[in-house]
Amino acid sequence: MGYPIQKQAFTAFLGTQEGIHSVILPSIYSSSGSKNLYIDKFGRARKILGYAKKNSSAITTNTGSSATMVRHLQAYRKTNTDGTFTRQLIGVFDDGDNEWEVWYSTNNGETWTFIEDMGSSSVDAIPDMAQFNNDLFIVNGVVAPRVWNSSSIASAVSTKSPDAGGAVNTAVGQLTGTYSWKLVSVEADATRHPAGAKSSGIQLQAEQGNVSWTADTDSDVKGYELYRTTGTGAVFYFVTYIDVRTTNAYTDNASDLSIVTNRTLQEHGDSPPTGAYLCEPHKQRMWWGRTNTNPRRVFPSDPDDADSIPLDGYIDFTDAESIGDVLVGLTGNFEGMLVGFLERSIWTVSGSGQIIGDVVDWTRRRSNAQIGCVSGRSVVRIPGGASYSDEEGRPQKTGQATLAYVTPIGDIRIFDGDNDIIISQPVKDTLGAFNYAHRTKIHALHDTSRSHIVWFFPGSGETEPTEAVVWNYRWGVWYHWPTMPFASAVSIETSSDAQLLLTGQAAVGTGGYAYTFFSGAGFDGSNINAQWMTKTLYGVDGNGTEVFETKKRYRWVDVLMLLTGGDDITIEAVAGGAADTKAAEVTKTISAEDVVRTGDGGLILTADGDSVAIDADLLQSIVMLKKSDGNYMTDTGVRLRISDNSQGSSWALEGMTLAYQSLPGHKRRLPIGGA
């Protein structure tokens, strides 16, 4: 008597975020078996889209002809006075020899205009950029910080107000004692410049004081705030506001009693530190981080004045355990805090920035994170409700926004403001193969339309990024994309408010290109080798529980796919438990003759942001699981491999049905002592 044929159906849909499909999950995060795939919003496993050059001609250095690496890409948006926006793409190009240049593009990277050469000392430096109001600040750990305003670049320095001069006015007045004055230039938007030098002490006896200065030449300045001591004191009190920039003199006859209840002068004075590695806006200030002299120090600016640093206003992320630790990243306005990422620890700064007495109410705290961060460019802000698997493989979901980042010990974690959680166990082997000697070059791209984060890594023996691992936080699954040679990546907002993903080439000599990412049929004209490898499929009993030990005769697999383009798809089967690279026992090629329905534009939805399914053909193929000797595959389990290596084709797995016969009495023999 024959054994009854049983069937196990698998839909490609992953299910709810709490219940990830048992077939899809292991296959996607297999470190070597699956590659160049992603999961769309409908839960289908799909071949990734490619990348194509954005600029038709390679970018070379401004002063020579050397090809360049696109070390950094940055989105910049200026708000114009009429409410419109000026959008630019800022790029840092590095020839690896003597040129480290800043350029900009007004057409999303198609053409570029030179801004400035930061010199040979900046070669190989990793830049950091941050926008504050309409200014874009640039640091690289070597030269003095720079500021770009959409049309010109300059040093980010504290522009002092005019120095005050004092003289006796013999007219009868209310001033008796020794007096000094200071001036503060004020711009139309209320930005205050650092105070100029005080006047020398002027002796008055029931007289008035004449204050004079050289009018400020900054056209943004609208007027001046005048401050003065009392006749016996050293504190500067507000006296009056002078609302005309060209004014250069004032006669002061305000009594000491009338000014001592006014606000006192908040001293400004320092420019951002030369050689700062980091900059980040937080609480209406720009925070400058890390120098070679002070590797764990941050310098908050004055309110609404990014390039003016209060005297002695720094904060050190230092305790008894922090010797040798180094600040590598800053994230502002996270749950009301500034987060400082060091290599071995994570710190937070809370507070409003209010001045209480003579102290600003910043409170620093070392978090409970067990390890720090590899690079600030690896940090990405993730919305609440993100799905992941814990170290035991159990599905979890975050309750609040978190920060995802790469650690120096080769894993990826999320940080909730106090604690860290490892989320990358599924790709542990893949991460372990990367070259962390060049960890400063690891960087991330947040593709919000597909709910995944791409981390670019230098592969084994590589000095620049060559591969990527990807976390889909909608579904809690991981991917491996092995051909990603990009030194930089950015998500920008186009004039139509669409998301555009761009990457920058990592190679010097053959570089000089920006790429549209996740767009196109191939990898810059090369084939995309995509492969989906299942976990071992064992079949199930009547309760839906997998049957691991019983041998089965595997008869066929019925595969349903969507395909665009005319390239063939290969389906292979290997014995259960076999290695990812095991030679196939059964192979079939799916081609055009397997089309059972031609797409009409309404076949599937395309809300995931790509167009692969607009004109897709529906393919159905029954693969008989017969080996070359004519016998059906017999084992406790079976693995399936679906792949293609082509340009112009894209596919999505809609579902499949596995047919098999259980062979009662035939069980896997366990070794002595158990499995």
Commentary on this structure:
With 675 residues, the chain is mainly β. The protein folds into four domains: 182 residues, Galactose-binding lectin (Jelly Rolls); 183 residues, YVTN repeat-like/Quinoprotein amine dehydrogenase (Methylamine Dehydrogenase, Chain H), CATH 2.130.10; 95 residues, no CATH class; 110 residues, no CATH class. It contains three helices and 50 strands. Strands 1, 2, 3, 43, 46, 47, 48 and 50 form an eight-stranded antiparallel beta sheet that branches. The chain has a four-stranded antiparallel beta sheet with strand order 4-41-40-39, with no helix packed on it. The protein is elongated, with a radius of gyration of 32 Å. The C terminus is likely disordered.
Shape: elongated
Report the oligomer.
Answer: single chain
CATH class of the largest domain: Mainly Beta
According to DSSP, the number of beta strands is 50
CATH topology of the largest domain: Methylamine Dehydrogenase, Chain H
CATH superfamily of the largest domain: YVTN repeat-like/Quinoprotein amine dehydrogenase
List keywords for this structure.
single chain, four-stranded antiparallel beta sheet, mainly beta, 675 residues, 4 domains, Jelly Rolls, elongated, eight-stranded antiparallel beta sheet
